[in-house]
Amino acid sequence: MSNPFPGSSRPAPGTPNLPTPPTGWPIGSYGTYEEAQRAVDHLADSDFPVQEVTIVGVDLMLVERVTGRLTWGRVLGGGAASGAWFGLFVGLIMGMFTPQGSWIAPVLAGLGAGIVFGLVFAAVGYASTRGRRDFSSASQLVAGRYDVLAQPKHAEQGRDLLAKLAMRPQNP
């Protein structure tokens, strides 16, 4: 099988998608992902073979931002709301297969059952933590820096293009 992306580390069609380390030489290093994207966009605008470029996040860290305190009211309210959505969905599906004019009963039954199950599952889940996690949060994987790599045969050209980009003022 031939690879449609010659010289890159992308697997040929049909080969397993196994994790592989990136290849190439560093041609730029940036503090944010947005800056690395800007650099690759500049390379693309300059007719650089960007299929030979990889953005690599270095010094990865998991950042968990606390979004609020959990109380029984918030937990049960969230459980009831998510259960209501699921119950409404199931009720609508059931209502599609009932005789015409009687779809409201399956929708209300599904909604009620969804709320009850949502409340029960939320209460059991929250009670099982025994107060060890009384907060809600959102997790995100971020990098300390983002390196732009290019295959060796294009690395010098890429460095030159990115040096010109660095000399231009950045738009806000």
UniProtKB/TrEMBL annotation:
Highest taxon of source: Bacteria
Residue spans of biased composition, Pro residues class: 13-24
Transmembrane segments: 75-97, 103-127
Region (Disordered): 1-26
Domain General stress protein 17M-like residue range list: 27-114
Coiled-coil parts of chain: none
InterPro entries, alphabetized: GSP17M-like_dom (IPR025889)
Keywords for this protein: Membrane, Transmembrane, Transmembrane helix
Name of the protein in its database record: General stress protein 17M-like domain-containing protein
Pfam families: YflT
